[in-house]
Design brief:
With about 500 residues, this protein is α/β, with parallel strands linked by helices. The protein folds into three domains: about 45 residues, no CATH class; about 280 residues, Glycogen Phosphorylase B (Rossmann fold, 3-Layer(aba) Sandwich), CATH 3.40.50; about 110 residues, Immunoglobulin-like (Sandwich), CATH 2.60.40. It is about 40% helix and about 20% strand. It contains 14 helices and 16 strands. The radius of gyration is 29 Å and the shape is elongated. It comes from Acidiferrobacter thiooxydans. Belongs to the glycogen phosphorylase family.
Length: about 500
């Protein structure tokens, strides 16, 4: 279905920058001769509908502080700097109100589920003691989503002794809330739920790790607005976008997430914590252990100390600064209005314009393009490039580089082709960087029937560079210059 959809459409995108790159590599077979990073798969990062997922308490505060105009400023980053002008005590009061309502809702759900399962009242009180209104307010970490295995809900439990030590500090209580469902046929995902349930009932985690049954939209809204930290631990690079973290961020909830999906773009250092994915030649078990240790390090050394650094204010000013940064950075970027505008500008408008071009004059353009594609497809296997002369070893600053390329067109005309030169170099890590590119100009046909293309170009960058020359078919009505997936290199 993916191959059919890609070949039957002309504009394609992933749903975050990282996902766009992953999709480009995965679907490179559709454009077999094109480098994956240049094929037609782009990206539009997902966004959430602010009017739906921003808590009413925050909307009311914005109305009081900013007036109603804020609803028309959702894509203006500079406007949202005014979040920093909200007094810390007012900001904290709203969050605590949402957190209290969330804990109350969770307590009711958890009490109901334990009674249904036959637990006694004493057991229920022990399992819900951190949710009581008179309990010392804990740092609440939320994990709520599909229990697919790649999302690694059990990552924190790789070192249960260390986790138990972290959660059971009486001066700095921490509460872990888990919610979610697995597909009926996803048995590994169901096993993850079973694993967390077993941990939640073990003595060292009773009342500290809570698995909430019946995950639904109402519970999801409570969690993304009421927890202090939103935890996301997917296996890189399998998280396409991850909009739950965006819903949390626009409500001032701080993300602690693997730098995958939207968080690869959203993380800025002052608005949450990023878990660097461990790439390279290590197996999954080792990577899981390494990333689990990193999450626990961040929790123990940064998250918990920052949250409980309350001093005389009764709250942590540093935590509020990070929460405000989370909201300020997410609100104007990761919203549905920006997403829809990008789709309209970069995809739907282009698609509509292209369709009009092809359909004009009783589809004359469409028929011409189809004939041209058939011609290129039949001829391309015979297209070859030759150097017209040796490439000089060096070009001084201010001088021009003169190159000639001879093309065996196999029946194609000069107008059917683009021949270009890429100027590349390597960075300190060995990554190839494109410095410049310049097109050749068609200059007739030589005595052997080869198409002659010439380049006269003054390089714009200095230093050691690699030249690569390529040719690909071109027609003015193509939706993307590499649409045919055809390319030859010299």
């Amino acid at each position: 279905m993916t191959a059919f959809a890609l070949r039957a459409s002309r504009l394609h995108n992933g749903v975050s920058r990282i996902h766009g790159g992953v999709a480009s590599r995965m679907e490179a077979y559709v454009w077999p001769q094109i480098p994956w990073m240049e094929n037609p798969v782009g990206y539009v990062t997902n966004g959430v509908h602010v009017a739906t997922f921003l808590a009413h308490e925050w909307s009311s505060l914005f109305d009081v502080r900013f007036g109603s105009e804020w609803r028309n400023k959702l894509t203006e980053a500079d406007y949202w700097a005014r979040i920093d002008t909200i007094p810390d005590h007012s900001y904290w009061s709203v969050h605590q109100s949402l957190k209290g309502a969330m804990l109350e809702a969770v307590q009711k759900r958890v009490t109901r589920q334990h009674r249904r399962n036959g637990a006694g009242e004493g057991v229920i009180r022990r399992l819900t003691r951190q949710l009581e209104p008179d309990a010392k307010t804990p740092l609440v970490i939320g994990f709520a989503r599909r229990f697919a295995t790649y999302k690694r809900a059990g990552l924190l439990f790789e070192d249960p002794k260390r986790l138990a030590r972290l959660l059971n500090d009486p001066d700095r209580p921490v509460l872990l809330l888990f919610a979610g469902k697995a597909h009926p046929h996803d048995h590994p995902g169901q096993n993850l739920i079973r694993l967390i349930h077993e941990f939640s009932r073990s003595p060292e985690f009773e009342g500290k790790v809570i698995l909430i049954e019946g995950y639904d939209l109402a519970l999801a809204r409570r969690l993304v607005t009421g927890v202090d930290v939103w935890l996301n631990t997917p296996e890189y690079p399998l998280e396409a976008s991850g909009t739950s973290g965006q819903k949390a961020a626009i409500n001032g909830v701080v993300n602690l997430s693997v730098l995958d999906g939207w968080w690869g773009e959203g993380y800025a250092g002052d608005n949450g914590w990023g878990i660097c994915p461990h790439k390279g030649p290590i197996d999954n078990d080792q990577r899981t252990r390494e990333e689990s240790a990193e999450v626990l390090d961040i929790l123990e050394q940064q998250v918990v100390p920052l949250y409980f650094n309350a001093a005389e204010h009764g709250y942590s000013r540093s935590w509020i600064a990070m929460s405000k940064a989370a909201m300020r950075r997410a609100m104007p970027v990761f919203n549905a209005e920006r997403m829809v505008l990008e789709y309209a500008r970069d995809y739907y408008r282009k698609a509509a314009g292209h369709a009009r071009q092809l359909a004009a004059d009783e589809a004359a353009g469409g028929r011409a393009l189809a004939r041209w594609k058939r011609q290129v497809s039949s001829a391309w296997s015979g297209v070859r490039l030759e150097r017209g002369q040796d490439i000089p070893e060096a070009v001084k600053v201010g001088e021009s580089l003169h190159l000639t390329v001879l093309v065996h067109g196999n029946g194609l005309r000069p107008d059917d082709l683009i021949v270009e030169c890429l100027f590349e170099s390597s960075d300190d890590l060995g990554e190839v960087l494109l410095r410049d590119q310049a097109p050749f100009v068609a200059d007739g046909v030589d005595g052997e029937g080869r198409l002659v293309f010439r380049l006269d170009h003054e390089p714009r960058t200095s230093g050691f560079q690699t030249l690569r020359i390529r040719a690909y078919p071109y027609h003015a009505l193509l939706a993307h210059r590499f649409e045919l997936g055809c390319m030859v290199w010299l």
